[in-house]
Amino acid sequence: MHFNEFNLSESLQKAIEAMGYEEMTPIQVEAIPPGLQGRDLIGCAQTGTGKTAAFLLPALERLLQDPTKTKNPRLVILAPTRELVIQVTEQAQKLAARTPLRVVAVYGGAQLSQQTDKLRRGADVVVATPGRLLDHIHRKNISFKDVQILVLDEADRMLDMGFLPDIKQIINDIPRQRQTMLFSATMPLSVLALTHQFQQNPIKIELDMAHPPEAIRQALYPVPKHLKTELLTALLQQMEVNSMLVFTATKQEADIVTRQLRQAKILVACIHGDFRQRERIAALEGFRSGQYQVLVATNIAARGLDVEGISHVINYDVPEHPEDYVHRIGRTARAEADGDAITLVTPDDEAVIHRIERLLGYKIERKTLPGFDYNVPTPSWAKPSAKALMREATQSLSLADRWRSMSGGRR
Q: Can you list the residues of the chain whose pLDDT is less than 50?
């Protein structure tokens, strides 16, 4: 199907043509018609399949068809990270470029005063992270009395990240008579149950949920923990890497890996929550432009990072949640390209790998890198101390005692 089959406003049609959109993706085909009707939606589809346009186009069209004149927002879009807010805002601004609709981004790390000025001048569309939006609500910089449409983008991640209290506060300020659309690449049942608080008889659209694109070549590389960075460097040197995104579990690990890659003369940038917003934007732009071959990131970049041409995604640390694996590796093989997703696996990771494979419904191929020495002994600094081993044993005993007490001493 083509976008012109929906009889969208001429201004939106011209914006669609200018952005190079032609045929619609499956999630757009399924979501846009009920979205135009004002129905509540739950849209689940694999990452990189056009979910943003699937909610923006019907929402913007509905605003254009409504003659209401107000300085207050009529469409509110919530997203979990600054990067995703920026990405959605950019796409909304491109689609609304030939319309009178005003789009404002609201997120932490940017100047509060500038956002306040834009909100007070008037905004039809507000794209925001929940925390910063609440800040503006408390400062009375924004009124939701005219909101007609609410969108939760990456809804599962927002709830998983602990945003539920913030989201509830925001929704309590929004009129009950509204359209609510939830979109994400995954929607676990535990989260799906919460959506009933926010929606009325939603239409559920589920397309290849939790299944990465077939164009992604997945592989597991078992490796001792102390050799992970050496293996990562060797992979970079032996493979044809256009651009590589490396995910770590912690900010500290991201800094260490970045430093070690720089020592290996690799052009690398890093992004995580401790960086200022302008530093994060500079790192992303440098990665997009090819100034950096590698971007090391924590989960902050797993959602909403839209960079064309990422040839490799490396899970330096295995993600804690299987759904995060799907989001991470979905950063490659976008726009019908192919790509490689490699996960470095230590013996401690096997239980999580089993859960990931159970979610996917198949085994991931295990590989070794030819010529790499996997038998280098663990250096003394990397070995756990006797004190650490004793502490771990004590914790295990304590857990066992608590379990016995909870079960009344039964085995």
A: 385-386, 388-389, 392-411
In this prediction, residue 83 carries a pLDDT of 87
For residue 48, count other CB atoms closer than 10 A to its CB: 21
What domains are there in the chain, each with its CATH number?
3-207 (3.40.50.300), 216-368 (3.40.50.300)
Task: Tell me the torsion sign for CA atoms 378, 382, 387, 391.
Answer: negative
Query: pLDDT of 382-404, one tens digit each?
Result: 555 445 445 544 444 444 344 44
pLDDT value of position 308: 75
Q: Which two tokens stand for residue 183?
A: 């979109």
The first and second tokens of residue 115, run together, are 């956002």
Indicate the pTM of the whole model: 0.63
- Percent helix, strand, coil in the chain, to 5, is 45, 15, 40
The whole-number pLDDT of residue 349 equals 93
Q: How are beta strands 75-78 and 312-315 bridged, if at all?
A: unpaired
Q: Provide the 3-class DSSP secondary structure of residue 64.
A: helix
The 10 Å CB-count burial string (b at 16+, else e) for 319-349 is: bebbbbbbbbbbbbbbeebebbbbbbbeeeb
CA–CA distance, 124 with 101 (Å, rounded to integer): 6
Buried/exposed 125-152: b ≥16 CB within 10 Å, e otherwise: bbbbbbebbbbbbeeebbebeebbbbbb
Whether the CB-CB separation of 175 and 147 falls below 8 Å is answered with yes
Whole-number Å distance between alpha carbons of 269 and 244: 11
DSSP string, 200-237: SSPEEEEESTT---TTEEEEEEE--GGGHHHHHHHHHH
CA terminus-to-terminus distance, the chain: 61
